[in-house]
# Entry
Amino acid sequence: MQLKRRKFIQLGSAAGAALTVGSQFGMKAKASALMELKQTGSASPTGKKNQEIPYTCLTCNIEDGGIAYVEDGRIRRLEGNPNHPGNRGKLCAKGNAGHLHVYDPTRILNPLKRVGPRGSGKWKRITWDEALSEVAGKIQGAMDIDPMSVMFQYGRNRTHGLVYRFMNALGSGTVNNHTSICECNKKVAMEHAWGPDIETPDFAHTKYILNFGSNLAEAAYFHNPYIQRLMDGKIENKAKLVTFDPRMTNTGAISDEWIPLKPATDGVVALAMCNVILQEGLADTEFIRKYTNVTAHQLTEHLKQYTPEFAEKESGVSADTIRRIAIEFATAGPATTYTYRGSSMHQNGVYTEKATMMLNVVTGNIEKRGGFNLPRGLGFGGGPGPHPPKPPHSILKYPPEYPLASHHVSHHVSHSILEGRQKINVFMLYCHNPLYTQPDGDTWKQILTSEKHIPYSVSFSINMDDSTKYADIILPDTTFLERWDPESMPSSALGWVGLRQPVIKPLGNAKAFRDTIYELAQKIDPDGKRGVKKYFSYGSAESYVKNQLEATPGLKAAGGFKLLKKYGVWPFYDKKKEDNFKFGAHEETLSESDLAGTTLEGRTLMKGGKSVGLMVDGKAVRGFGTPSRTFQVNVPEWEHYGFEPMPHYEAIEDHKRMKSDELLLSTYKPNVHTQSRTPNLKWLQELHHRNPAWINTETAKARGIGNDDLIRITSPIGYMVTKARVTEGIHPQVVAIATSSGMSNKSTLGNYGGSKDPDIVQNTWWDDTGVHPNQIIPVSTDPIGGGMGWFDTVITVTKAKSGDKYGDTRSDRGAARKAFEKALSKATKVRTEDAHNTTAKTNVRDEIHTEVGGVFGTTAKLRDFEDPFNTTA
Amino acid sequence: MAKKIKYAMVIDINRCIGCKACMTSCKAENEVPLGVFRNHVRELEKGIYPNMKKIFLPVLCNQCDKPACKAALPEGYEDAITKRDDGIVVWDEAKCKGKVAEAAIEGCPYSNPYMHPQKNVFQKCDYCAHRVDAGLQPACVATCIGGARIFGDVNDSTSDVFKYMATHSTHVLKPEEGTEPNTYYVALDRITAERLEGSQQLPPTDATEIAVENFSG
# Structure
């Protein structure tokens, strides 16, 4: 290759120098005179010794381990916890800026009571006693009318059961999470297919990674831990990485091949590949025979309809490419897929997730070194007893139209409240900013500002976010560096439990949610007559969390809570163990005691009404965490509700009817942000504050749009005026806009008790903070999973019209309502009583996710951790 | 006798994922004000859809053996910037300020040094000398989740950086400047002059673009 000489960069002669030095390589290693440099530690510029306190991060939901360096009561710096098996001493861009949450000038450090109309920004500072008395009074009043009229809407709730303890004690099942706008379609598909709702691929030892729409290099579960292993696999193990994504993400950038495709067609590409693999005789038919509930012949016949040519017509990916990648994937050696929201948060997302999982099934890459594996999360208990009984579930949580939506349907809640499906008297908001993060934000604004629909509204918040500003009362919460939580995530092959502990005292009069709820319960039920108080007798937040964590098998013997306070995580990372990790959890033979009292139903071993194992060629093995203990290629529950039980692709109705000038709107998370939580962290905002819409060069040209031109994007429910980023890095039919811009709380510097940061005041060099698209994104829903069809919105894009101003956003409430009704019309038509039965069934899953805190590893047992202390000796 | 310590960093472009963890860890560790950076990750794009490529180029101070910033110091201020025995280029804020700082900043062909907006003094990346002196890796190295940064003593044959350089071909930025950098790159040849020339740069107001401007300016 001819390299032109340029002043800018030159490839220099250092290679020669390196060779000279390199000639010594291979000599017997000598002990260095120099102490090896440690990865982490304290080096304060003041020379003062810092306290070093381990914590668990919460700048996103991956729960990496960190060490806080505290100097004179102030957090000077955060670093990764080198003992943490997931993130191995490293933090991402957000994690490194995590302490800015504590010192965020927009923090609220005193309870605030609204004194003007909702949203007027007029607040009065009140005492905690006044605040809690008022909220307790409102809750008592609502309980007297109907406990179910007390509603709790949470987002990133990491209390692992406290919200449910509180709401159950009040007798209200009107509790909603935010999973339907996150990744619930993936979860629902996986739960029915193999039990747990996530996978832990062994990226470090794989040979081939097929990535459908996830962006591990920037976001996704588990960005930091997984990308470390993925890069090890790619560079050291020479694995090939292929990414299907309409947008050139950073993951696309590091991929060997970036293959853009039409959104919502990942499933048909995956099924066509499975078809090719079976047709070519490359399938692991033994795995299919032993561990699934179909035969290889049935599967081959079923998949014949998904030809590469059909997939090409749907997705735009050439049949030749599909054939080639399929054969590469099947013959590479250990291989794995990876997905997250990109492929699954469409209206056909559940089918898509199952389709991509099938690639691992047909190639037998399940539970293998270098393969697609079950998660290893460690569980912990629901905290100190007694535990309140469970009230009935609200229709807002489990709408009967979505009998299989086991993770709630949160993006329907605003419309459901509007139509009076559940009367609300007290609304509580915690770690969630629906007006910003939910689709159709204007409908949320409508209910949050309406005293008819929400007579009283409480927000537990660390700052004045877009939704909190409409609250009647704000109870200032603490950041993740000022609170207690137990944690566990399957972010490496080795399971772990971690501790989030306060590294400093809460700033100002902020109070940790755990303490606020405890005190609120005493206020609601001072004399115990309401039957609430008895569930809040455990004392401190610390003792609650200690109780939860110490229920983890083996932890107490290893050092218990004391060990976690000291090291932040258990068990410790041991590279050797991860390298030699024993896979094949589904093949594990059942012991005599496991087998005692079992009966056989077909191939499934039953005990006490529960399936516990699978007979494979006369051997009793653990199998998968499904009712049949097989990997359910055929899901009978889906058929029951009129869905396709076998691997399936269904094109999105709206996409079939798209006109030639119409496009699809996609949104994405940039690498330095977590939706609405991080934009006011200065170092992150500096790196990413504006969010021009990515539009393909040809698409832009056809519309006379140039780079940075003002454009109008029109959706079925409204329009927005933003700027164009004309690029070759996006599918010509797709426009993509980053989230985490266009927040409204930038002007509240130091208004609510937080301190002004002179650096922000003096040195902020940008004023463009972007335009947020969610207000023009209509509600749409996967009828199986109940998840939001985030990337399905059909739009038109034109140059801005005369009079359009940057940032203009309009939405039509009537059109938004129609979109919601359209989503509902595609839901299952089930009889109400049947729906209730199903709801009862889904409760089991719900409890798994709330009581043991979303720990995924239901089939993986704790093992191989004899003595964590020795591993770091 | 043991060889003198000489610090160097290798950045393997094949392992950089453009995550910017190094950028925020640097800001935090060194209390770098908004608007200036000691460490940037440039993003470069090239090609026509769908044959489009994107690549990341982290840039920081090269701790040159012949530092151009030092050479540019006005007469009488030669000791405002010094090279430590271990190769790290450091500055004296009491001396390297105002016009002196401006000259030094102007002199660097890599545009790493900047004027502190409030203190009006010269600052730049110094491989986190305070951390290195405390036996710690530079902040960007410690947190690099792609594993792209290798740091240590190139004179120590047991060090990771020595081993990496011995097994990989490395290049430096702008060798024609004669500055003799100690920050080396693996796979810099992926970023050809041709690709850079045709690369679309990120839109204005993105911090990454500041890097581009500084770099080519």
